[in-house]
Structure formats: C-alpha cells, structure tokens
Amino acid sequence: xxxxxxxxxxxxxxxxxxxxxxxxxxxxxxxxxxxxxxxxxxxxxxxxxxxxxxxxxxxxxxxxxxxxxxxxxxxxxxxxxxxxxxxxxxxxxxxxxxxxxxxxxxxxxxxxxxxxxxxxxxxxxxxxxxxxxxxxxxxxxxxxxxxxxxxxxxxxxxxxxxxxxxxxxxxxxxxxxxxxxxxxxxxxxxxxxxxxxxxxxxxxxxxxxxxxxxxxxxxxxxxxxxxxxxxxxxxxxxxxxxxxxxxxxxxxxxxxxxxxxxxxxxxxxxxxxxxxxxxxxxxxxxxxxxxxxxxxxxxxxxxxxxxxxxxxxxxxxxxxxxxxxxxxxxxxxxxxxxxxxxxxxxxxxxxxxxxxxxxxxxxxxxxxxxxxxxxxxxxxxxxxxxxxxxxxxxxxxxxxxxxxxxxxxxxxxxxxxxxxxxxxxxxxxxxxxxxxxxxxxxxxxxxxxxxxxxxx
Length: 456
Description:
Blueprint: E1 2-12, E2 20-29, E3 32-38, H1 39-45, E4 48-53, E5 58-61, E6 63-68, H2 88-102, H3 105-122, E7 124-131, H4 140-151, E8 154-161, H5 167-184, E9 192-194, E10 196-200, H6 206-219, E11 223-227, H7 231-241, H8 245-251, E12 259-263, H9 269-278, E13 281-284, H10 286-291, H11 299-305, E14 309-311, H12 320-335, H13 343-349, H14 352-357, E15 375-378, H15 392-398, E16 405-410, E17 413-417, E18 420-421, H16 426-444
C-alpha cells in the first residue's frame, strides 16, 4: 500500500529523456517517488491510501529558484524619500544597503514567511536564499529557518558575508554560515540546507573569498557570490587588481564546480571560457537584471558552451512563471532572433538545472523513482488550445501563471490543495507579516545613502 497516487495527468518528468507521459501517474511512498508510468499500468500495480485525479492537468516537479533574497519582499510598494538611483551602484547605496542596516531578526522571519508563502502559492518547492543584515547577523538563519519549516517548502539558506564595513563583519557572517551548516546537516530529509554566501567581489577581499571557499569544501556545501551584476563590479576589479571579475576569481583559485555565480551579466568571452573550464555554475535573474538596468547576461553563449544555468528571482518577483517568460523573451529581443532559447531550455533552468547547481540532481528536479516527492499540479482550464505531449511545454512557458498552480507536494506531504494552503492559517500569517513590515517601514521612511565602502 503506497501513500499517494496522482493519476490521469499529463506528467512532465524532466528526467534524462525529458519524457512527457499523457494519462500518466506518479506513485509516492514515505516521501519519495516510487514509480512514474501510464495510469493504467500504475493502477494495476499499486494501491494507495490517497488518490488525486489530475485528469486534464499537468503534473511536474516543483520549481527551483536558484537565487533569491527572501527579504526582498520588504520593499514591495514602498515609497522612499530618496533621489532616484541612476545605476546599480546607487541602487545599493541609496536603497538596499540602508535597508539592510535596518533589518532585525523579526524582520528576517516575517519577510521569509511572506516569500515562502509566495513560493508555495506559485509552485516553487526549493529555493537558495542569501540574507544580508549587518545588524542582525547572529542567529538570523534560525529565524529564516523557522519560517521555511512553517510553510514546508525546501530552502538552502546562507548569510551574505561582506566586508563592506570591516573585516570583522565578514568573519561574523562566515561564522553564522558555519554554525548553521553544522546545525542543519542533521536534517536527513533536506528540508532546510546550508551553504556559504559572499556578497560580491567589490565588498569582499581575496582572503575572505578563499576562507569561504575552503569552508564550503570542508563541509561539502555550495558557495555563492554575486558576480559582474553591474559594471561597478568590473571596474572595481580592473582598478584594484588589473583583472576582470572572473579573471580575479580564477587566478586566486576560487572558481570550482561547487561555486554558484549569481547574475554574470557583464562578462566577456574569455571569462566564459574560464567558467566552462572550472565547471562553475551560473544563476540567471532576468527580471531583476531588467529592473536594475544592468544589462543582459550572455546566456545564449553560455548555453551553447554547456555552462550549467539555473533560474533565479534575486528577491524581486516570486512567481516562477513570470521569471521563465522573461528568460524566454529577453534574449530574443536582445539578439533580435526569435530562435534563441527554447521553452524546454527555460523549463530546464527552473527544474533539473537548478538541482544540478546545488548538487541535488540525484534527489530533486525531476519526477523519477527514488527522488524526493516534490510535485506540483497545474490546472489547465485557462488554456484556450489543446494540451498534450507536444504542446504542454509551450503552455507552461506561454500560457500559465502561478495562479494556475493547484496543488503543491513537498517530501510527499500535501502543502496546498485546490489552492488552499494546508499547513498554516494564511490570514493570520499575513496579518503577522504586515504588522512587522509596518514597523520596518516606519524606520526606513527617511533612509540615508551609504557611499563609504571599505577599501579592498
């Protein structure tokens, strides 16, 4: 007797063969997938305590957000009394760094709860988050973990270590990551995981970078850093080191297969070759890159070279369908070529490639026997045209939105069913979030720019 069978759906497996099974079924037992096949064969072989009929619906692996900032939710709709930034560096100086300074542990929890609920509602079941709060470093990851576990989706959590103010600040950030990694490595179900995070090469010294890398290697976890998001990063490295960003990371021995580089917008071909040589991974954040006007990452070249790419939101829009559509469209207009980037390549970034970035491809990212049962069901009633094996990928990229996600399952547990969240009282959670955000908004109403960055 199995725990759960999902039957009669259009099953998009994202397995090695990218099988799409019409009238397909998935069997779940003890939090893992036992079998994936045609419904007729599954129902002959298995019985289950619970059966979900997904007739006419799409069944696929939960989406993976490979780079986010959960606390990005705190400024939604905010009006700040500042001179509008003219570039990305001013965006940091006038908005995000002052906000970082204001964050408390309670803000970290409330913003994480809001973001995790957004992810759950729209079908993301795993995310990689980096938190930045120089006045709320110690134990911040515990507060974020609390929110993640309350919602029930998976999270890879880290504190974004930086030496923006001092070397001591960077050490404290690294220690918070180490403490948390040691704590969550006991989580055998991998609901919450840890990693090492560094802010960016223009706020981190070579010494801290290599300490972070050595720590990641010691604990067998990924390490992530923002890379060449804006031109300020490139100019900093050229001025201080006589090298472009990726060249600097390569020369100090930082680049490696467990390194996840967020953005990689302003790279040249020589840098791409270094990424490929070291098998470093990249997270594409198209909507954030457009919002911050930093440029268009050379994703088409990366795909051609076989560089592994995941999809992130950088803390901006938490509906993965919007991020997938943006990745699908942005490069077509940028290259003036409608042929670049297929719907399947985008879907891969949001599923199996995201798992590969964090060394989880044997456990997550596709619907296959032996993997964790992280599954979503998408309602297809809004689709105006037929949905079948040949059209479903196009519909996932071009038709649906997060509002069409009907059911979300993580580790075999149903977290949302028929759009109803099962794991907590959504109304009470939203009330708690808003009360905390009102307090934060009162503090940041008159924020002042921060322009002094420690010389690195």
